Known about the structure:
Elements: H1 4-17, H2 29-32, H3 35-42, E1 49-54, E2 59-64, E3 70-75, H4 79-89, E4 94-95, E5 102-106, E6 110-115, E7 118-123, H5 131-148
Antiparallel strand pairs: 1-2, 2-3, 3-7, 4-5, 5-6, 6-7
Amino acid sequence: MLSNAFRLTCLLGFALSGSDAARAAGPDVCVALPVATVNGLVHQSLAGTRSDVSEEAHSYGCAYGAAGRVSVSVIRPGGAAAFSRTSSRYPNAMAVAGLGDKAMHDKQAGTIAIFGDMAIDAFVPQGSMSDAETLAMEKALILAARSKL
């Protein structure tokens, strides 16, 4: 006779195998890149996170701080196409050498880099920082996210 635990496990496995729940979920950027890590990289004291997820668009993001002004997002699959669409909307964006397969930076859009078919973008409000300081922080966020995904 089968044990109740074995029957329950079989039933759960069967139920999940035919549903969307069986598919692997996208990355949880807020978990991969916790606020303490972000604070260290952007030299701020942000509190709290808010997930920003669109499964349909394969977009997984996290906004940091009460106002959610610092953000990191991942698009996979479809990152290369998203990069192409985004870069065409910012004709004054500058190329960023040495970051992913291709990368760009714009003051309004932040920094976005592609790694194969995955795009990672980061935005840090410039405030009183120089362009170089803001870009350095956004690059650090992208590389930190990349190392966790």
